[in-house]
Amino acid sequence: MNILFVCTGNTCRSPMAAALMNKIAMERDLDVRIESAGIFAHEGDNATTEAVLAMRKYGIDLLGHHAQPINEELLQKSDLILTMTAAHKLLFAEAAPDKVYTLAEYAGLDEDIEDPFGGDVEEYEACAEQIYQALLKVADRLEQERGNG
């Protein structure tokens, strides 16, 4: 399964989500390929310093991350598109209605993943933990679907 995480700039939330999902997938032996992109991403931008620092708690190095803008090819090859907010989801609802969800929605939660951009490391750490907890539920769902498939 190809999973695409989408946020605004692809320097904070979506790269943290992609990295955390890769970690969870390896721990649970899930057959997934993970990418991230941003609606207004500038090709090649690095992850923010705060995102890099927040990921260290999870043993993840984001220093090699380079932002990419979302494009038609990414949308087409993705089996599941998880956005950080309902506003992001609305942008793709028509193009990919059967495979786009907010991360929280797919995890069975309610809240959007708010953008920590411009905040301090503690805000990024709180955001990362919110993403991580949602991704644990996503992994549970993927495991259930694998068992039923």
From TrEMBL:
<dbReference type="InterPro" id="IPR017867">
    <property type="entry name" value="Tyr_phospatase_low_mol_wt"/>
</dbReference>
<protein>
    <submittedName>
        <fullName>Low molecular weight protein arginine phosphatase</fullName>
    </submittedName>
</protein>
<feature type="active site" description="Proton donor">
    <location>
        <position position="115"/>
    </location>
</feature>
<keyword id="KW-0904">Protein phosphatase</keyword>
<comment type="similarity">
    <text>Belongs to the low molecular weight phosphotyrosine protein phosphatase family.</text>
</comment>
<dbReference type="GO" id="GO:0004725">
    <property type="term" value="F:protein tyrosine phosphatase activity"/>
</dbReference>
<dbReference type="InterPro" id="IPR023485">
    <property type="entry name" value="Ptyr_pPase"/>
</dbReference>
<feature type="domain" description="Phosphotyrosine protein phosphatase I">
    <location>
        <begin position="1"/>
        <end position="141"/>
    </location>
</feature>
<feature type="active site" description="Nucleophile">
    <location>
        <position position="13"/>
    </location>
</feature>
<dbReference type="Pfam" id="PF01451">
    <property type="entry name" value="LMWPc"/>
</dbReference>
<keyword id="KW-0378">Hydrolase</keyword>
<dbReference type="InterPro" id="IPR050438">
    <property type="entry name" value="LMW_PTPase"/>
</dbReference>
<dbReference type="InterPro" id="IPR036196">
    <property type="entry name" value="Ptyr_pPase_sf"/>
</dbReference>
<feature type="active site" description="Nucleophile">
    <location>
        <position position="7"/>
    </location>
</feature>
